[in-house]
Design brief:
Blueprint lengths: L14 E7 L5 E7 L26 H18 L4 E8 L7 H7 L2 H4 L5 E7 L7 E2 L3 E4 L1 E10 L3 E2 L9 H19 L6 E10 L5 E2 L2 E10 L2 H22 L2 E10 L2 E3 L1 H15 L4 E2 L20 E7 L20 H17 L5
Parallel strand pairs: 2-3, 2-4, 4-15, 5-14
Antiparallel strand pairs: 1-3, 5-15, 6-13, 7-11, 7-12, 8-10, 9-11
The structure holds zinc ion (2 copies).
The site of one zinc ion has 5 residues, from loops.
Length: about 350
C-alpha cells in the first residue's frame, strides 16, 4: 500500500496459474501480491528476512502463501465448476506492478468476470474480515512544481522576483483546495511534502521546487483538485510576475469495490468465520493500492483479513518490527477456497 518515487524494478515478474474444473466457461481472478520492501528487518526470530535491507514488512509473503494454499486445496478437491486464475502480482509497493500486468494484457490472456484481492490488517483480530462497498482506498496523484522568478541579493529584494515568497503563498493557497472547493462529504487530501529553494543566506534564488501528493476517492474530486491547483498557481504567479511549470501525475486510481462482489466476499467470509466476525462497514482510507488498476474495468473487491495485535501491540505494516501472523493463513486460504466453491457451486 504505497505510492512514491522509486525506480522500476521487478514489475514484470508476474505469475498466473489457472485451474479449470467442469464444463462451465465462467472465470474469476484471485490476486495476491508478492513483493517485499527496502527495509532492514529488526525482528530477531528465526523466520526473519535472510536478505539485509529487504523485508516482507507488508505481509505480501503471507498473501502469497494464502493463495497458494487455496490453489492447492482447490486442485485437490475440485469441488467447483469453472475456471480460477490465481494472479501473483509483483511490485505492488511503489512501482504499480498491477498496472503493468493489466497494460500487458492480463485480462485479455486470462479473461475473468470479476477479480478479487485481499490484504492483511494488523490490529484486526485473527479470524476476522472487514470490507466496504464503494470507495475503499484513494487515488494517489503526485505533483511537481517549479516556480521561476529572478534571483537577487537578499538585501535588495526589489531588484528580483522572489520565488520563495510566491511559493509560500502557493502552498498556503493549496490548503484551501480541500477546505473550500471539495464537497466536505467527499474525502480528499492535498499535501505539500517538499519545498526546495536557495543555497546561500544572502541570495534570493531564481527558482523554487514544490512537490507533494493528492488523494481522493472519486475521479471527479481528482479532476477538481488538479484544476484548482493549476488555477491557483497561475493566479498567484501572475500576480507577482513569476512563471511556473506544473506536472500532475495520476499514479494510482481509486480502489472502488462493487456491491455484488462485496456481497459475495461477505458471504464467503461469513461461511468461514460467522457473521459476528465479518465487518461490512469498514471505514475507507486515503492510502493507495495498485490492485485498483485491476478493478478499473472489471467488477471486484478488495477485503481485509485480520493479522492480530502482534506481540507488543506495535505490529504495523511497513515497520521494521512487522510480523505476518501465520495464524491468518488458514482464514485467508479458507476464504479464497469458499469464495470459489460458492461462486462456482457444482449444483448451482
Ligand atoms: Zn505495503
Ligand atoms: Zn501491502
Amino acid at each position: 500500500m504505497a505510492a512514491g518515487e522509486t525506480e522500476l524494478t521487478g514489475e514484470r515478474d508476474g505469475v498466473v496459474g489457472s485451474l479449470s474444473v467442469g464444463t462451465s466457461n465462467r472465470a474469476i481472478g484471485l490476486r495476491a501480491d508478492m513483493d517485499a520492501l527496502d527495509i532492514l528487518e529488526e525482528n530477531e526470530f528465526e523466520h526473519r528476512s535472510t536478505i539485509d535491507g529487504k523485508m516482507h514488512a507488508c505481509g505480501h509473503d503471507g498473501h502469497t502463501a494464502m493463495l497458494l494454499c487455496a490453489a492447492r486445496y482447490l486442485a485437490e478437491t475440485r469441488d467447483f465448476n469453472g475456471t480460477v486464475h490465481f494472479i501473483f502480482q509483483p511490485a505492488e509497493e511503489n512501482v504499480a506492478g498491477g498496472r503493468v500486468m493489466v497494460e500487458e494484457g492480463l485480462f485479455e490472456l486470462f479473461p475473468v468476470e470479476a477479480v478479487y484481492g485481499m490484504h492483511n490488517t494488523p490490529g484486526l483480530p485473527i479470524g476476522q474480515f472487514a470490507m466496504q462497498t464503494g470507495p475503499s482506498m484513494a487515488a494517489a496523484d503526485m505533483f511537481f512544481i517549479e516556480i521561476t522568478g529572478k534571483g537577487s541579493h537578499g538585501a535588495h529584494p526589489h531588484q528580483g522576483l522572489d520565488p520563495i515568497v510566491t511559493g509560500a503563498e502557493v502552498v498556503m493557497a493549496f490548503q484551501r483546495i480541500v477546505g473550500r472547493t471539495v464537497n466536505p462529504m467527499d474525502a480528499a487530501v492535498v499535501s505539500v511534502t517538499q519545498f526546495h529553494a536557495g543555497r546561500a543566506m544572502n541570495v534570493i534564488p531564481e527558482t523554487v521546487e514544490i512537490k507533494g501528493t493528492c488523494r481522493a476517492h472519486l475521479p471527479e474530486v481528482q479532476d477538481r483538485i488538479e484544476a484548482r491547483m493549476e488555477q491557483i498557481l497561475k493566479g498567484v504567479c501572475e500576480a507577482h510576475g513569476l512563471t511556473y511549470t506544473l506536472r500532475y501525475e495520476r499514479r494510482y486510481p481509486p480502489l472502488i469495490n462493487t456491491a455484488d462482489e462485496i456481497e459475495k466476499a461477505a458471504r464467503a467470509a461469513i461461511a468461514v468465520v460467522g457473521a459476528e466476525n465479518v465487518d461490512t462497514n469498514l471505514a475507507p482510507t486515503m492510502g493507495a493500492e495498485d490492485f485498483a488498476w485491476m478493478l478499473q474495468d472489471l467488477p471486484g473487491c478488495y477485503i481485509r483479513v485480520g493479522n492480530g495485535e502482534g506481540e507488543d501491540g506495535g505490529c504495523v505494516v511497513h515497520n521494521p518490527n512487522y510480523d505476518f501472523n501465520d495464524d491468518a493463513i488458514v482464514y485467508g486460504a479458507s476464504y479464497w477456497a469458499t469464495l470459489v466453491e460458492q461462486e462456482f457451486a457444482v449444483d448451482g
